[in-house]
Amino acid sequence: MPGPAPRSSEEQVSHGHGDRLIAALSRDSWMPLAATATGSIATTAVALALPAALAAAVNAVVTGRGALTATAYLALLLAGAALAEVATGITSTTATASAIGTLRLRVAGHLLSADVSGATRFSTGELVNRLVSNTATAGSAPVTLLGTLTGVAASAGAVVALFAVDPRAGLAFLAGTPVLVVVLRVFVSRVSGLYDEYQSAQGRLAARLTETLAGIRTVRAAGTASREIDRVLRPLADLSSTGHALWRAQSRTVWQIMLLMPLVEILVLAVAGLGVAEGRLTPGALVAVAGYAALGLTFVEQIDPLLGLAYGRSAAVRVLEVLALPVLPAGRRRLPDGPGALSFRGVTVTRGDARVLDDVDLEIPAGALTAVVGRSGAGKTTLAMLAGRLTEPDRGRVLLDGLSLSDLEPGCLRDAVAYAFERPALLGGDIASAIAYGTAGTTREAVRAAARAAEVDDVVSRLPLGYDTPSAGAPLSGGEIQRLGLARALLRRARLTILDDATSGLDTVTEAQVTRTLVEGMRGRTRLVVAHRPATAARADLVIWLEAGRVRGRGTHRELWRHRDYRDLFAPDAPDSRGEPHGGEPAGVASRQEASCPR
């Protein structure tokens, strides 16, 4: 079954898709958003009532009638405004936290379900930046949008109230606002593209920093700290350039707004003042006009929320690029008991313009130890990922005991397949939990037995806290970490165990001991091993030789050793027993009495 091929980000997402993501977040957080909206509406209503109440109080003081009542009403409104502000602050914080949490869970869940090969489009640092920073920015957008809408509604209500107090003052207000609206529109349009560039530069900087921190020992050992700092900080030039462009856009807009706003207010107050002079308006009405004119111009203050929305839209696009990664569809079939026979039928995998695997047909015998060999880029790791459905073929099928992996229920598939990787992650907290990770109800004795089989029990026992040692700070070498990953795979006792270069960091003696476990201790279970050493291939029941994505040969190590190209995979310059290159069989194969002689 063909798998979904990743598309370019231009095909996947746009700002329109980002808007839909923000709308979906608003629906998911509707309860706290509704509470925030209620508080915002109450705040707006109080704000619209205050100029009228203040006008009534002024008129009462001027006329000497009802001053106490007007003052009490004004005080009540001010108290209501304070309470509404507090309630809105609490509910808006809750709504923002809810939206951010929902989005982060969605992104994390999508990444854990995505095709592994597709997720490699992004570096670790880039994914962390999008999962942490961009989700926070995008998740804040619904509350920002609500605040913007409330502010615009307050401005519109103030204009209506202004017309109710004095239509002439209202017309004067409308005469000056179109220019402000045009200035704001041009500004928001300009900065939206700049925010895209700014966040992209931030992502590149975060990605490089994460890579450097992960390889800090290599940097120190090579003495390249200064060069690495320069490499990490190289995106700062783009960040600075875009940041300065944003500041220039803001500065041009701010001085225009700061010039236009007072002009509009002066025009409105001049018209209202003439009305007072003519006896058309009361002194209180002049106060109300001033209040409503100021409140009507608060739509200009929405420039910061509008910038936040532009930033949120840009962040939403970056989050959607992660959510657009292809996800492996879940099957529903259960896997019945079986011996663990693995089949590849017409499997083709394409990455970009290159075919990583090209029409591969393979039968991996049940219960056998099968080694996969080939040069770098031959497709070994891709084959290993396909075997446990960490990725999907673009064409063809992979079957386990006659059932297509794409048809199997994910939990059932994970129970049937165990993996050990070249660089395993020690998840779970402590060493014991790292070994038992993904295996429920495991006893400590079972964990130790798996560690003994992987030749790592003595290493763990020498640690001060033994198996309770926190895995994050455990003083372990790369080979010892590999053995812990191998122990985790052995503990699963799955019908199919896949080792993707999982013994490359072991010394020769330890690898021989571990290989003995693979050969003898796991007899009867299917094992697929990506191998780089001839000793591992020599002990395998079957060797699959890949070259440029195709099966170049299959057979035992002894049979394939007759091919010069096969011998070159392991020791291209190694002389044979007669001192001539490739004249004889490899060490461990020449003598029938040696333990490494293939069966």
Automatic annotation (TrEMBL):
Annotated compartments: Cell membrane
Pfam families (alphabetical): ABC_membrane, ABC_tran
UniProt keywords, alphabetically: ATP-binding, Membrane, Nucleotide-binding, Transmembrane, Transmembrane helix
UniProt domain ABC transmembrane type-1: residue ranges: 40-303
TM regions (residue ranges): 30-54, 143-165, 171-188, 257-277, 283-300
Keyword presence, ATP-binding: yes
Membrane topology term: Multi-pass membrane protein
MF terms (GO), sorted A to Z: ATP binding
Domain of life assignment: Bacteria
Region (Disordered) residue spans: 571-599
Protein name: ABC transporter ATP-binding protein
